[in-house]
Write a structure and sequence with these properties.
- This protein is an alpha/beta fold.
- The chain has one domain: HAD superfamily/HAD-like (Rossmann fold, 3-Layer(aba) Sandwich).
- Strand 1, helix 2 and strand 2 form a beta-alpha-beta unit.
- It is globular, with a radius of gyration of 14 Å.
Length: 89
């Protein structure tokens, strides 16, 4: 078991909004594995759940990628996250 502590108003959803505002980007891609990632997924243009993610997150994900043990996020970034490419195309 674990306990997460955050300042009031500090959420992953708010972080996505802040990053978009600070960078001027119109869209964000996010990655997650737990139910607490759901609000972040709802804010982003695309949200990818790792294979070992909670079923509730998988249900709303844009796609399912390899698990954390399979370096799913790294593999996605290597394929789609190259500088100068648009993963939304």
């Amino acid at each position: 078991e674990w306990l997460e502590l955050m300042p009031a108003g500090a959420t992953k959803r708010a972080a996505v909004r802040q990053l978009l505002a600070l960078t001027g980007a119109e869209k964000a891609v996010v990655f997650g594995d737990m139910k607490n990632d759901i609000p972040m997924f709802l804010e982003a243009a695309e949200g990818y759940a790792v294979a070992n993610a909670a079923p509730e997150l998988k249900a709303i994900a844009s796609g399912i990628i390899g698990s954390n043990r399979e370096d799913g996020v790294v593999r996605w970034l290597e394929r789609y996250g190259r500088r100068g490419t648009d993963p939304f195309k």
